[in-house]
From TrEMBL:
The keyword Oxidoreductase applies. The gene is LOC106115270. PANTHER family: D-AMINO ACID OXIDASE (PTHR11530), RE49860P (PTHR11530:SF17). Keywords: FAD, Flavoprotein, Oxidoreductase. It comes from Papilio xuthus. One of its GO terms (biological process) is D-amino acid catabolic process. It comes from the Eukaryota. This is D-aspartate oxidase.
Amino acid sequence: MADGPSIAILGAGVVGMTVAKLLQDENRKFNITIIADSFKENTTSAVAAGIFRPGTSFSGPTVDITKKWINNSWYYWQDILKSSEAPQAGLMSFSSYIFSKEHYTVTRNHLIEDLVPIYRAVDKNELRICGEGWKYGSYFSTIKIGCERYLPWVERQFLEKGGKIMTSTVESFTSLPGKYDLVFNCTGLGAKLLCNDYNLVPIRGQVIKVKAPWLKTAIYGDYDTYIIPGFDGIATLGGVRQYDSYNMKICKYDSAAILERCCEMLPALKKAEIVAHKVGLRPHRIPVRVEPETVNGLKVVHCYGHGGYGVTCAPGTAIDAVRIGLDLLKTNVKTKL
């Protein structure tokens, strides 16, 4: 057992697992336990398509912090992408088109246009890739983070380095199964009850996983329509954004609408075999919460509320959360009212 401070990480989605990885990279003597009720394929992170494309509404407490989170996330993912571990970790690079029949602004993204290697307007020929009627479009290079591979990859390394995992539902910070010097709250939507945070709202998402090994480029259209390639020839078709919906059941009407929109953009999908329908609740909060708090004498660092951009921006926020946590271990933090 490590003889350093005892640290608990609540939540085993992409945010919690990335915090765990960064902590172990920082100091192997930390005695770290991940506590969660869902792991790997059962997390919201595993439902996500995982393309690096933060929505323009993604927001930290300031513009500068938001940009720092996004940039640091990009470099974190790039470091893994460039390593020999990339396939096992679920990282791949690809290109993407985004088209709109109505709004030019939909095709622009000020958060990544100066970050990704290529982000340009499409030409007239490219506008016809997905049929007629498209007025505006952009092409950009980006990456895919497949959490169905990334989460097991991090968990495997975490356990090999002496980390511990516990399956439990934490209902309050005072009922943790053990004593800890520091706790990271990466519970996503679970923080709504854990922290009585009424600013945290679910945005329901539903996707269809299909076999499309021929698909090599991601495509976005109007009305939250997207077609994103993945590993093992499995593509993700989406989607919906239903504000304040807790419905975890598959909705046949959403499925029909997703298929209709995606097949209109890419008719070859009509022949694609459907592998699965998935639902996830995105933990939406403005701003994303990354800050310290003392709860009944317990040092806590919150890192939640990423909405639909947790896979994209987990590393940048986790880097800040770990920095805050390390400072807390050295000092005392005033109780936040």
